[in-house]
Amino acid sequence: MKISNPHNLVTAPCEAQQRYGIRVSLPVADPLRRLLPEHWETVHWYEDAATRDRALEDMSVRHRYSRIGDAPSVVYEPVER
Fold first, then answer.
1. CA 58/CA 37 separation, integer angstroms
2. In the prediction, which pLDDT does 46 show?
3. In this structure, how many other beta carbons lie within 10 angstroms of the beta carbon of residue 49?
């Protein structure tokens, strides 16, 4: 799936050398899966585990501008290559 504004993503110049990542996917029962390709996921790569862990913590926090009662059902999983 393409990103509508790829310039908004923070990426390092050489992603191939980055070892630590965060896999972002949706739960199996999420209704949004019907709109995405069958096995949709994306991975954000980082140079070290500490940076990845900080990003994972930041991604996992409830979005401050979400409506009361909204709970995004996104799965974040730390990965290494």
1. 26
2. 94
3. 13
* pLDDT per residue as tens digits for the range 14-64: 666 789 999 999 998 888 889 998 889 999 999 999 999 999 999 988 777
Tokens of 74: 């996104």
For the record, the structure tokens of 73 come out as: 């059902």
Q: Give the residue among 73, 6, 80 at the shortest CA–CA distance from 43.
A: 80
Task: Report yes or no: 78 and 55 within 8 Å, Cβ to Cβ.
Answer: no
**Chain-centroid distance, C-alpha 68:** 22
Half-sphere exposure of 58 (CA within 13 A, CB side): 7
